[in-house]
Amino acid sequence: MEHNGNYKNEFGWFADKPKVPRKLFHAKAVVGGLLIFLVLVTAPLWRNLGKVVPAPDPKLNTQAILALPEKDRVCVEDTAFMKANHMRLLVDWRDEVVRNGNRDYINSKGKRHLASLSNNCMECHSNKSQFCDQCHNYVAVAPNCWGCHWEKEKKQVAQTEAK
Amino acid sequence: MLEQAFTGSKKYFGLLAGLGFLIGLGALGYYQQLTTGLGITGMGRDVSWGFYIAQFTYLVGVAASGVMVVLPYYLHDYKAFGRITILGEFLAVAAVSMCLLFIVADLGRPDRLFNIIKYPTPGSVLFWDMVVLNGYLLLNIIIGWNVLEAERNDTKYKKWVKFLIYVSIPWAISIHTVTAFLYAGLPGRGFWLTAVMAPRFLSSAFAAGPALLILLCLIVRNNTKFDPGREQIQTLAKIVTYAIIVNIFLFFCEIFTVFYSQIPDHMIHFKYLFLGVEGKGQLVPFMWFSLLGMIVAAIAMVNPKIRQNENTLAWACGLIIITTYIDKGLGLISAGFIPNPLEHITEYWPTGLEAMITLGIWATGFFILTVLFKIAVAIKEEVRA
Amino acid sequence: MSIKRREFLRLAGLSTLLGLGGKAAFELIAPGQLDAQTYAPESHALKAKRWAMVVDMRKLDEKTAAKCVQACHVAHNVPDIANPTTPAAAVSPEDQVRFRIKWLWTEDYHNAFPGEEHENVQEKLHHMKFLVLCNHCDNPPCVRVCPTQATFRRPDGMVMMDMHRCIGCRYCMAACPFGARSFNWKDPRPFIKNVNLEYPTREIGVVEKCTFCDERVSKGQMPACVEVSNGALTFGDLGDPKSKVRELLRANFTIRRKAHLGTLPQVYYIV
Q: Could you tell me which CATH class the domain C51-270 is placed in?
């Protein structure tokens, strides 16, 4: 039967949709499929279930920080701001440096800082595992900064190896 | 309608299981590629696109060829094709799905795939390729589904579907044109720098796609109660005949321009393909087989006795599918990179793992095709019963 | 600074939920403070209207060229696929060719300038090793084809790579007529012997190339290769008529690679 637009069937022009009984066909397969889907979607929850992750305890006791006089022990912005926004700040730095060639960050107090993860942040926070990883592990995020940028801890290992 | 996909013969489920197995193998290979990088393929700094992009190019053609059944039916009111438009549309769906998978398989950073949408760049042909391919996929799913559902319910599909059908016709041409523009606009790649690229893509697509559809129609007839029809197959065969002849003609246009002008950086790629350069020419036998095979197939198809006999027709169609595949799927992409712009020659051959991933994607496409054809055929059988 | 106050509050709220002291952040930070934050180039950054390079082949012997390549590749942690740090990472000779990453390298005359060679060419050309690199074209095809603007042309003419954005489609590699782009087919780190800790490496799956040492220029330094080239390489501003590059271009006959393709390469060669 071709549907060329102007054919007539036994009920007249453009018959109504045939009635389909209201019933869940293939109930077993459908419900089973939905269950599998649910389990897969919630897999990250199951994976972390019951895992005990110690509360984050980022350490600020690196040599570089301790060497500074107490009053100079400040980051490029307030601690509170950094806690909440360091990821946004780093993404901003990244784009400004790579795309706009702006390698200096002028902070809210008007002070210039080199906008560089490896060459500025990690100079003080040379303890990635004791600092960055503390919270990142706690909230189960894995930023891939370290795929390219050197982390200070490994840096030192590499440096001593080179010597 | 989807429920039709879940019932069927042992043969149907056996086929799906077999394809599922190949998909699983492909997924394993892809996992390896994802974790250790594209170094598991045969590609390198000189031949930086390979098997994946070649399959992609070939399959865009298969997808675009769906228009060869849609256009005669809707624009010329060639009623016989009404019976098989759905097969053409569903073939397009499966082919475009494979295209998209091949693109993703070829990306170095699939995790950043959506950067194409996050940072849309209208100056890049790849951006437009993403737009037209996804659009074509969507169009064919919507059109195919609605038309089939209307046929099943014995009603006429809605008006807006007709509008989408009209849109889909130039859209099909566009997907292969844009794909040709991916290559044809690059300075310093003499092999691809030709205005005849898009027309040649279309002609080889309109030969290979309908040839594949003929084989699929024959398979459907032999395995189900639905007969796509002798007239339909014969009309498709005529389309294939014209298209393959145009394809050969355009190839010789290309050869003339390249060799009469005697411009070295255009000639050298053809020399590599058909003669070999500096003792390197692993594609030479393939390319000669492809060219001669295409000519033989064209002569066979012109002959009414061969064309009208469905057995010999099937053989000719098979030959066309294989030869156009070699031409577009093996020769076209790698020869563009060999020799490289600095005239160094590094050859390319896919690795086992690369072939496994490729096979996995083909299996995914045929899985989709099998399910869609099963639905379409079941409904055709139901309506006819 | 692109953090809006609303967005900041949202983030602070989120971190409160995670027990990270966002509440304290909310109380401590005075609104409006964020607007003061801006960015600027480093104070002693070199600036130019249009960066360009002149390669003086009269002064460039093979040893100097090798030194330049070495300086560049060490400065940018370019992996040396032929020399892995561990024997386990070693790859076959064919794979060394396939996976090679080059920012700066040497080519023979007929490869650097295909089609220019003839039978009776000056003897010295047969022995010359031409230093080749990204030409930082004025009309770069790689930038034209990139679907994400991961490679882009800066106003000062440097054609840059944003490795954070690259999706690894390698369209730029097909588009570049100079073979100046390399792809990370493998993890590069096992192939970097002399690590420069100031400069990042790359991950698998992105394209990289010479950036005219934007990181050094921004600190007021010349590109690494120029510094060790004994005067064979000159880097400067084409927009400044008094610059050294303009002087060299005025005084000498120069050629460019594949100028007929219209990409307007900005690396000039004095032969």
A: alpha beta
